[in-house]
Amino acid sequence: AANGARVVSTWDFGVGANQAAWKVLAAGGSALDAVEAGARWAESDLCNPTVGRCGNPDRDGVLTLDASIMAGDGRCGSVAALSDILHPVSVARRVMEQTPHVMLVGEGAQQFAMQQGFERRRLLTEDAERAWREWLKTEHYAPQINAERRGRPGDKDNHDTLGILAIDANGHMAGACTTSGMAFKMHGRVGDSPIIGAGLYVDNEVGAATASGMGEEMIRNAASFLVVELMRQGRPPADACREAIERVVHKRPEASRTLQVCFLAMDRKGEVGAYALHRGFVYAVCDSRRQDTLLDSRSVY
Ligand code: SD4
Fold first, then answer.
1. Helix, strand or coil, per DSSP, at residue 61
2. What's the first-to-final CA gap in the chain, in angstroms?
3. What's the order of all strands across the beta sheet hosting 173-179?
4. How far is CA 64 from CA 40, 85, 157, 188, 189, in A?
5. DSSP letter string, 122-175
6. Which residues line ligand 1 (CB under 6 A)?
């Protein structure tokens, strides 16, 4: 049933997300259900400081989550700065399916989630609260490339945003993105992940792209949309990702030395490509032949 189906995800925890998504695809399910399942896995089954329930809070000590979901026919939904709800990606899907809107933020998003039957519960962990109290000692906002992974290869406790893209046996595509955003961001800060075209874009006629890293750069460059549009012009996925990285560098050459930006793309034929600004970006690919393949992205530096 899963002939031609494939799912790809950002970072090494993408392997687990892919497996959750693959269960759906292997049973003949849709790409949309698959990416939601993969993102839900990352939001709950995994404890890491950049996604979901174990995420680090903002500088006021509040954990706020961003997520989006998009189908290849242009349907999409997202939530930003959502607190105390375990599965932002599923709330994003409800925004897509149950409202006339695309994006809900903050209190309104939380109210909507509760109306839809999502349980409100405090998510901030003791570890995340401790990390925040530690941060308060210096109040120095300097996001690390690859979220402290540098110099700690194989460290399974530090990850980044989950971006997941899938194509199902019917050739339909979908994508999702979920994150707690940059640790110790300003209260109210929204990253690229819930912004359609910045952190995620999917078009059945071309392909799909998602991003991880410093969200401000993705927003500035409408970057995931850019990657898809470059593929529309005939560029292979990895090439399109590289060009998007080059745009980021071109606009902010100095800042590009210390910030990380990563793109992952898949075209409608299932060809996968990635590119990052700095070394260390890995992505996971899963299909009927490969269940837990982790690949190193190429990078500028
Ligand atoms: C953001 N892009 O909120 C996300 C964070 C991230 O690796 O991906 N970190 O800007």
1. coil
2. 41
3. 103-105, 76-82, 65-71, 173-179, 162-167, 6-10, 282-287, 293-296
4. 16, 9, 20, 8, 9
5. ----HHHHHHHHHHHTT----PPTTTTTTT-TT-TT----EEEEEE-TTS-EEE
6. 50, 147, 160-161, 179, 181-182, 191-193, 212-215
Helix (H, G, I), strand (E, B) or coil at 179: strand
Answer whether 30's CB lies under 8 Å from 168's CB: yes
Around Cβ 42, how many Cβ atoms within 10 Å?
29
Residue labelled with tokens 């992974």: 149
pTM of the predicted structure, to 2 decimals: 0.95
Calculate how far, in angstroms, residue 262's C-alpha sits from the geometric centre of ligand 1.
10
Q: Could you read off the pLDDT of 1-12 as tens digits, one per residue?
A: 578 999 999 999
User: What amino acid is encoded at 82 in this protein?
Assistant: L
Active-site annotation holder among 161, 178, 179, 210:
161
Its ipTM equals: 0.97
